[in-house]
Amino acid sequence: MQRSNSRRAVQMGDQIMQVLASLLVQEVEDPTLQLVTITGVRLNRDFSIAEVLYTHIRGRSAEPEITKALTRAKGFLRTRLGKELKLRGIPDLRFQWDTFLEDMVYDAPPQADH
Fold it and tell me: How far apart are alpha carbons 93 and 53 in whole angstroms?
């Protein structure tokens, strides 16, 4: 996916992230999706694909189960996104576990013992 780094793409990604997070808390009734945190949304150049980054308090072991649940909820989420943001074209949602924090832990310099 060719990501867009334009200001408009970043703003739209932030709006999508806020709406999705709100929908997960307030409207989605799947217990698997409780405590899912949407950590970011990256759009491609033509805004047709939104890569939705997420984490969960249970950690990486919950990823397959949560990805399936998010995929099942995709139609509902896209419909509500269109209504909330009044978008002409609603991007396809692709869910991906956010590895940012994991990468930070593994890439951190070793601590010196004093």
Answer: 10
